[in-house]
Design brief:
six-stranded mixed β-sheet; TRAPPC10/Trs130_C; single chain; five-stranded parallel β-sheet; alpha+beta; TRAPPC10/Trs130_N; Trafficking protein particle complex subunit 10
């Protein structure tokens, strides 16, 4: 059957002589070279949008070759006849005579012929030579040109149908053809528009007569299909598809009305119908069958599908072709199975198989000519679906021939279950030679099955649809299993779940894993680690799906899962080492956020809820939880358990290590002999939350502080001597425990601890100890005791603080079989809590030193006393006196108020012994206010326990609670500092077990007074202090030479004497006393108070105990009470001494003997007369 016309026909006509000339041949060739028409835009009045035709093929045909036969009754395409007729004239443009006598008549005859034809346009093409047009191109032409005459004679409807072509032989200028091609394009579109409108009107008229007698669907179909073939010829494929879709709707309406009188039977199978190419429209004379009202529904549907697919292929929509074919084969295949008894056996399976494969081949042929780069994956997926549909028919045929078992995955292709003892159907009616060969030989069938499956897998993989490819891999594994190739099947089943898991394809994953377990059992392989992993993965899919993926009754599921768990228990018992499996969803562990102290021993309990998602109990041996804290702190809670029943189980886990604070739930673990099921509960920003986890936040667990537990603390030693080897005070608190053995080690970055040099700081403590270079061991420590040890260490003066890691292992008398391990981190400050500054004042042979003590933190420091001690009181030649009362009491140093201590250092008379070269030591006895208050509180608690012995077990919690109450409010500090009374702010809760003892102790503390002899712990700081050196000490004094109480007046000359006494007592050595220094003095200028007359600036020679006297005269400039001028005295550089490249200058200190004196100046008496001008009158 001939297909529709693929191009538009345009006729041309002219005189016979011109058409046979070489000029026309050249013009025709050039015109054909300008075709096809490109980017043609069709704006139809009956369509809302513009249609763009990228390329429109045009066939130029001589009008004389077209026979005007009688109109056929069978509707054909609108492109069967020319849409445009062109008449070519060649007379010169100014040859009006030739036009009037000859050419005009020829045009009239042609015009009469073409205008009588419906839906055809016409165009007159005037061809002129380029040279003649130039010669006749005068600006003023009285008679006009031939083109003007043609337009005047034939453009009667005001539409331009005449165009001039300037032709030059041997040239091919596209610009010369521009106007002609535009007219050609407009003419074709205009004719096509009118033809379409007429045909659509005919279709609407026919469809409107649908309910009238004599109406025929097949005739209507042929009529409306002519529109589709016309659109196809114009490359308007989308419009053609719309026509076929409307025809399909009309056909479905006919089916709905059950009016199939225009069709034959549903199907009249011919011998090759089951194997003929589906999309071929030449295999049968479909249009003749339709016109004869004798086409079957089967052939009609195939014809419509083929035409639609051809249009989709022309529009490069091959993906839709595959989808359309797949839907059609599935839907019509089900319809054919309804009449399976009326058609040859296995016809449906053979037809679907052959049609699917032939459609794939046809799509490949179409795809080789199309650009499918972006659509290639979807196209491959569509072909793969068709191949899988064909492969499904092999499943049916294989089951029918008993080559395949009637069970999943092969039986999933059966729409109706096959009776167990059904007789195989005959294959004689199948005409597909490939199927016939395969169904006669089992191995050939398997090869064909594998070939088609692998083709589908390959296409699925190329399209990125891994799930479908993996499903087909599973069917190949099932085939290997059926054929007895167990190793191949097991390998495939084991590898497939890893591909399903990332995409949450739980159903496929579960099926593959169950098949792997069955295959493993059938092959008789040992249940090793690989088998355990497969079984755990199966349990994982079971838990995630709730068991819905297992297609068996609930009772059977429980029995099946129970058998697997027992097999798992046996398998893990035979392992030679532990096997870890992370994040298994069959068991879920939930941890309480607060732990509970044991109270009777060191350690705490943690409640844990374990949910078993399997329908049977699981035998286990231990459940454990790991909590993590700062600085690598790890605490493990464990509980021995024999079994976990289905559902929730509450367990209480115990950790023997004492710890407190908030900790992060790091991991949990359930042990089943050699199998460790582990879950990580730590979430980070880089880790995704597992799909089975309900929450993605970290879990914090708070453990209360056990005040009666074993503990290790660090403090500064009682005495800190600057310059001496440093040490650290380690305080071991046994709490409730009688400790049989305890050993610990200390470590810190850049610090070395001398464990063998440890000394006992606690008085009256009895214990046995041994030590190694890096560890200290203690034995037989009593309960409720604190043992203090001093441990020397390397220099840490470059650090403000050090972080010490403490590792402690201890056993108690109550549980000697349990060794508790503590990993503690303590930070201790290496700096002193106070800073000391000193100021020295030289007064002859005496030295006054003022020490200013201030706190370096926000805490208050209580100072008991400060002492300045000489190195050797017998031979030093120094006598040190404190310039404060011995009854001064305790001094409190605050951040806003420092403490000052003044000492007088008296040196002996002249001689070698009077010069001290060894450092003095400043000893300060202090304690922090917090330490003092803690001692006062603990002392009050002890007194309360003596009165009420039942409170002894609450001693530590009671003291700690009172301290916490003090920390909430600082209002008590001021009152305590003045009177010693300690008012505890706040009150305990009514239900607090310590309410009564707290109230008793609070009353005791409110009556507390500061003791004259303070008790409690004190710290000592020993700071070395060097005696300062001063080469020259000068005492300057200005003495007024007045008698008694003589009054002094402003402006009165007052005689005075400047006396300078020098001393070398505090020099570098005793030999300095024999030296002489050149000195310079300078009396201060006080220009507002004094006028100094005399030698107020000069030099003199200073000797030890020497005196220099200079007379001066002072004049007070006004009355008042003034200080005398100061005198600056400096040493001049030594003549023969050089220091650091410059002349040496002795250091000098000058003090003003008259610095505290003031002189009263009285105003001078007398009278003065002033004359003031009052102005003129």
């Amino acid at each position: 059957m001939a297909g529709p016309k693929k191009s538009v026909i345009v006729s041309y006509s002219s005189t016979q002589s011109f058409l046979s000339s070489s000029s026309w041949t050249q013009i025709l060739q050039t015109l054909n070279s300008q075709l096809p028409l490109r980017n043609v835009h069709w704006k139809s009045a009956s369509r809302p949008s513009i249609r763009t035709i990228h390329e429109l093929d045009v066939s130029l045909v001589n009008l004389d070759t077209i026979r005007d036969e009688h109109t056929s009754q069978i509707p054909t395409t609108l492109l069967e006849r020319p849409l445009l007729n062109i008449y070519v004239i060649t007379c010169e443009n100014n040859d009006l005579e030739a036009y009037r006598t000859t050419v005009k008549k020829q045009i009239k005859e042609w015009h009469a012929t073409v205008t009588s034809r419906k839906n055809q346009e016409w165009l007159i093409l005037h061809v002129v030579r380029a040279d003649t047009r130039a010669q006749s191109g005068a600006f003023f032409t009285l008679k006009g040109s031939v083109l003007d005459k043609v337009r005047a004679d034939f453009n009667t409807d005001k539409r331009e149908r005449c165009v001039q072509l300037v032709w030059s032989a041997g040239t091919n200028n596209p610009a010369a053809w521009a106007e002609s091609l535009n007219k050609l394009r407009d003419g074709v579109l205009s004719a096509f528009e009118s033809a379409v409108i007429q045909r659509e009107e005919e279709v609407r008229r026919s469809e409107g007569q649908r309910q009238m007698p004599g109406w025929n669907f097949c005739t209507f179909f042929i009529l409306k299909e002519s529109l589709a073939t016309s659109f196809e010829g114009m490359t308007l494929y989308d419009d053609a598809l719309v026509v076929y879709e409307e025809l399909e709707i009309s056909f479905y309406q006919v089916l709905k009305e059950k009016n199939l009188s225009w069709f034959g039977t549903l199907i009249t199978p011919s011998p090759t119908d089951d194997s003929a190419p589906l999309l071929s429209i030449s295999k049968k004379t479909y249009r003749e069958l339709i016109l004869a009202n004798n086409i079957s529904v089967f052939d009609f549907r195939i014809y419509v599908l083929s035409r639609q697919c051809e249009l989709l292929a022309n529009a490069s929509r091959l993906t839709e072709v595959c989808k359309k074919v797949g839907v059609f084969l599935s839907a019509f295949g089900r319809r054919l199975r309804e009449i399976e008894s009326e058609i040859p056996p296995l016809f449906v399976e053979s037809w679907i198989y052959s049609s699917a494969l032939s459609a794939v081949d046809q799509c490949d042929a179409w795809g080789s000519k199309a650009d499918l780069d972006a659509k290639r994956p979807a196209f491959n997926a569509g072909k793969a679906e068709l191949l899988e549909l064909g492969r499904n028919q092999l499943d049916v045929l294989g089951i029918e021939k008993q080559y395949l078992p009637c069970e999943p995955p092969f039986s999933s292709a059966l729409l109706v279950s096959r009776p167990e003892h059904a007789q195989p159907k005959s294959t004689e009616s199948i005409s597909n030679p490939q199927l016939l060969t395969a169904l006669k030989d089992q191995d050939t069938f398997y090869d064909l099955y594998i070939l088609i499956t692998n083709r589908a897998i390959d296409l699925y993989a190329k399209s990125g649809r891994r799930k479908f490819a993996l499903k087909l891999h599973g069917s190949l594994a099932a085939l290997d299993l059926h054929r007895g190739r167990l190793d191949n099947a097991l390998t495939t089943y084991n590898s497939l779940p890893a591909h399903y898991a990332p995409h949450s394809w739980t159903s496929l994953e579960s099926i593959m894993l169950s098949r792997a377990l069955e295959t493993h059992e059938t092959a008789g392989k040992p249940k090793d680690r690989e088998w355990i992993h497969v079984l755990l993965a199966f349990f994982k899919t079971y838990a995630e799906s709730g068991g819905t993926e297992l297609l068996m009754p609930r009772e059977s599921k429980e029995v099946y899962i129970s058998q697997l768990t027992r097999s798992l228990e046996t398998a893990v018992s035979d392992l030679d080492s532990d096997l870890s499996y992370p994040d298994h969803p069959a068991l879920k562990v939930q941890v309480s956020s607060v732990a509970i102290l044991d109270e009777s021993r060191d350690g705490s309990h943690l409640e844990v809820n374990v949910h078993n998602s399997l329908p049977c109990p699981i035998s286990i041996s231990e459940v454990s939880i790991l909590l993590t804290g700062r600085d690598l702190e790890r605490f493990r809670f464990t509980s021995a358990t024999e079994s976990l029943p289905p559902g929730r189980t509450n367990l209480k886990l115990f950790c023997p290590t004492p710890c407190h604070g908030s900790f992060l739930l790091d991991s949990s673990e359930i042990r089943m002999k050699r199998l460790l099921l582990q879950w990580s509960h730590r979430r980070t920003s880089h880790n995704k939350t597992p799909r089975h986890s309900a929450k993605g936040n970290n879990v914090l667990v708070r453990i209360p502080h056990d005040l009666l537990a074993f503990d290790v603390r660090l403090r500064q030693p009682p005495l800190v001597a600057l310059g001496a080897p440093p040490s650290l005070l380690v305080v071991i608190s046994t709490g409730r425990n009688e400790v049989l053995h305890a050993s610990f080690s200390l470590s810190a970055p850049s610090v070395n601890f001398d464990c063998q040099g440890v000394t006992l700081s606690t008085s009256n403590a009895v214990y046995r100890s041994t030590s190694t270079p890096d560890r200290i061991s203690l034995q037989d420590l009593p309960d409720d005791k604190e043992i203090e040890l001093l441990i020397p260490h390397s220099d840490v003066s470059s650090f403000h603080s050090i972080k010490v890691s403490i590792e402690v292992d201890y056993t108690t008398a109550l549980e000697p079989s349990i060794t508790r391990s503590l990993r503690l981190t303590r930070v201790i400050s290496t700096t002193l809590p106070v800073s000391v500054n000193v100021e020295d004042f030289f007064r002859g042979n005496k030295l006054f030193s003022k020490f200013i003590v201030s706190t370096l933190s926000h805490q208050h420091v209580r100072i008991l006393n400060a002492r300045l001690e000489p190195p050797d009181t017998e031979s030093s030649g120094l006598k040190i006196l404190a310039c404060s009362s011995s009854k001064r009491g305790i001094i409190t140093v605050t951040p806003a108020q420092a403490a000052q201590f003044l000492f007088q250092i008296n040196s002996n008379g002249p001689g070698e012994s009077s010069h001290v070269r060894e450092a003095l030591s400043l000893d300060i006895t202090y304690r922090m206010l917090r330490e003092e208050v803690e001692f006062v509180v603990e002392e009050a608690v002890e007194r309360a326990i003596l009165e009420n012995p039942n409170w002894k077990l609450h001693r530590i919690p009671l003291a700690r609670k009172l301290i916490q109450m003090l920390e909430t409010d600082a209002s008590w500090v001021e009152i305590y500092g003045i009177s010693g009374e300690l008012y505890i702010p706040g009150s305990p809760a009514p239900d607090d077990a310590l309410q009564e003892p707290i109230e008793v102790v609070k009353k005791m503390l409110q009556t507390h007074q500061h003791s004259d002899t303070p008790t409690g712990p004190w710290h000592d700081i020993r700071i070395p202090v060097d005696v300062p050196i001063m080469n020259i000490v000068a005492a300057a004094q200005i003495k007024l030479s007045t008698q008694g109480d003589t009054a002094l007046y402003a402006g009165q000359p007052i005689p005075a004497t400047l006396v300078v006494r020098s001393s070398f007592h505090w020099g570098t050595s005793s030999n300095d006393k024999e030296r002489q220094y050149m000195m310079q003095y300078d009396v201060e200028e006080m220009v507002k108070e004094w006028l100094v007359s005399g030698k107020k600036r000069g030099t003199f020679v200073a000797t030890d105990a020497g005196t220099f006297i200079v007379p001066l005269t002072l004049v007070a400039l006004h009355h008042g009470e003034f200080k005398l001028p100061k005198v600056m005295i400096n040493a001049l550089p030594l003549a023969n001494a050089v220091t650091m490249g410059s002349m040496a200058i002795p250091n000098t200190e000058t003090y003003q003997v008259h610095g505290a004196e003031k002189v009263l100046i009285s105003p001078r008496g007398g009278r003065s007369t002033f004359v003031l001008g009052m102005g003129s009158t």
